[in-house]
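Practice problem: YdhG-like domain-containing protein
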Amino acid sequence: MERLIEQLARRGGAPDLQQALSAAIEMWLGEQVKLQMGADPACVRGYQWKTVFLPEGTLLCTYSYGDEQHARVIGRQIIFCGRAVSPNQFAHWAGRSTRNAWNDLYLRRPQDKFYILASRLRAQVAQELERATATVTTSAAPEDVPARTALPSAPNNLLAEVLHAVVAALQTSEQTKSAIASLFPQPVLAPPRDCSKGEGWDLPERRKFRFRLEDVAFS
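Answer key — structure tokens:
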């Protein structure tokens, strides 16, 4: 109270203690609302069970043969019968059999009003994580819209450039061939030899002038 009065005196003016107290309380309550559940610096201690965080003070409950067994999160450990255990160990020892802790344990965190099955709490945490991821993606989407809008036209422009380059290369190659052909003209070839049979070739009197090339070559 003395510190509050001193602070009001430093600010000057006639201090209204009741208004200052109301404003301080409203400010404190507003800051508490801003804090997320379980994010209070005074409650950062607890036990991390896979994706589920159990803050200090969380109660764990299980039923076995009509008996109700309880454990509690103290500090960063789960304490059952004076010893630190894991959720699986608590379900095993309390139930006196092998059990699935996610389907056998009921949890009640300090902010919860009722017990909730561990597997259901895990599903709720997964849904909250998906919603948070979707919110981040949605908020970042408007910045990506211009880039995504420009993407479809980029392949068309690239294809057009490639086609122009190919046409230019073909035109250049045709021009190069024409220039080379003008520098080195093709030689004039002699007409093909006429090997057709002349008139009277089949006459009997001309057969005596026929001979075979192999007889000439090897004679």
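Discussion: The longest helix spans residues 118-150. Students who identified this feature from the tokens alone can consider the problem solved.
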